[in-house]
Specification:
Layout: E1 2-3, H1 11-36, H2 39-45, H3 51-72, E2 75-82, E3 87-93, H4 107-121, E4 127-133, E5 137-144, H5 148-155, H6 165-183, E6 193-199, H7 209-219, E7 222-228, E8 234-237, E9 240-243, H8 248-258, E10 262-265, H9 268-283, E11 284-290, H10 292-314
Parallel strand pairs: 3-4, 3-6, 6-7, 7-10
Antiparallel strand pairs: 1-2, 2-11, 4-5, 8-9
Helix pairs in contact: 1-3, 3-10, 4-5, 4-9, 6-7
Length: 318
Amino acid sequence: MHFIAPAWLWLLVLVAALLVAYVLLQLRRTKYVARFSNLELLGSVAPRRPGWRRHLTFALLLAGLTVLTVGVAQPTAAVRVPRDRATVMLAVDVSLSMQATDVLPSRIDAAKAAGKKFVGLLPSRINLGLVAFGGNASVLVSPTVDRAPVEAAIKGLKLQESTAIGEAIFTSLQAITVFGQATTAKGDKPPPARIVLLSDGTNTVGRPVSAAVDAAKKAGVQVSTIAFGTDNGTVTYQGDTIPVPADKQALQQIADDTGGTFHTAASVQELEQVYQNIGQQIGYTTKQRDVSWRYMAVGLLVLLAAAGTSMLWSGRLV
């Protein structure tokens, strides 16, 4: 916890002094009664004082003053708040291996269904673009807050031969750069950006992934990857059955190297959950906010409780 005005915390010394004075007063009163009173006579004629009740009232008073003092010092706490703006490029693998049916009805159809849900759950203030990659990579939709063209482009995804993961990252970075230059005022920083890359295979054509990762790091863009499919996926190509397991290790390395997050999904339900988690990460950020009102409210309630117990048990406030 941090404080905007920590100097006010010195008032806690006064609260501690009140506690010490109260304890000394109670000890002194006990000794005085024991020395100068006939305890048997006093017990028969004097009403009992609300001993523990009196102490509880004072304890509530001290607690209330303590909490109020902390509130005056203006404590801050980490709070999740919506991002004002951000850019996300969704890169979807459309290589032939995505026709595998280990994820029903097929990997590509499941990816389309989950991708549409991702478009819907991403906060409306976030700019979203779409890149499809197979033997090459192309921007189907430049970053925009309009979700309709992204949904339409996802619906129309077509399969291609080969897998160009490196090109997908380079193409996404180019789209982010162009969008940032076009929408950022001179002297301002471009909006934060993230690439969300879904694939089930290994880079087979185009520029190497290592070069793309270096470019992403230089641009300060994290790449979150999703390994989609199971280890048992197969496709039939020219009469041959070819195993197409998801390359989890390669995709995790991309995420680790760029500071992004790595996820696995072996079903459409898991993919939807991954997209939801990523959407929450992208759509919100953590900031320190003044939460003194919480302490002021609690402190006031505790002081009211102290006043109430005093009135209830002794008929007075002190």
